Request: fold
Amino acid sequence: MPNENPIFELRTDPIVGRRVLIAEDRAGRPNDFLAPEASREDASTVADCPFCAGNESRTPESLLEVAGETGPWQVRVVPNKYPAVTLDPPLASSRPGTPLPGIPPLGTHEVFIESPRHVRDITELSAAELARVLRVHRQRLHDWSADERIRQVIIFKNVGNPAGASLEHLHSQLVALPEVPAVIAAELQAGHEYHSAHGECIFCALLRDELADGRRLVASNDSFVAFCASAGRQPYETWILPREHYASFEQLTIEDSESLAALLQDVIGRLQAQLTPLAYNLILHTSPTGQADVAHYHWHFELVPRSTQLAGFEWGTGMHINPLAPERAAARLRDVA
Ligand SMILES: [Zn+2]
Ligand SMILES: [Zn+2]
Ligand SMILES: [Zn+2]
Reply:
């Protein structure tokens, strides 16, 4: 159905200043997304899935295992079999004459297997199970924060093929790095400048503005708020922030893990009702190690559904084109019963 009053606007991300073109069109293109995958059969475990209970020998030995009420374990953390970084890197290859020889890819790369059952999204876990997964994330963040080689921990989840998932069994990943990557460095810099000028956290200010404005709110509870990003890069890009100021995800309490689990399941359920099948990246941005108490950073999730492909314009400019206005996206998500 054609959109009424389609929005064409060049917008600026309120934190890092990234530009996004909101370019709705009358043909209703926002609904014309990637074709659904073939439907898959249901089974509690799948014989050839390396993450299912019973197939533990097909993954590296566990770094951490959380016992479950049913079955041998509920969450397993294992080293990534195909890591992007390693704490034991081979010596950098330096070819004479190359201006920028490679440096060793130092870091660590872990996988969290979030259920012994073959489930595909967090809505198939109980709220208590998801809360426990979040506490395992917090635990590994805490463990790596004590390692002086590590400056930044990033935790993320890829769900569905268009989001880069190679296995459908519900899992997430942790990468610990010896330096703060550019995206988080830009947020820290913006937070630092804003705090110097206004004496306040830029994310706390953004949250207050979004709550007052209301047009982009998706869902909330006593501890967390989800809203569509005003300069979202993809349709339905949603940010989730704690209402209180916390710089590090390490500060998540048990009660917080339960209300965060409930809100994440609520938001993913709403997205599933709008985008079938739902593919997304869920990214945790938390303060660098040793900066758990800073006033100028505020941990958050960026949830980016992947329904449109990045093409030449995006690769060539770093600027995204979003064919669904965040205000319209939020209204649709709020309308899900
Ligand atoms: Zn499986
Ligand atoms: Zn804050
Ligand atoms: Zn962020």
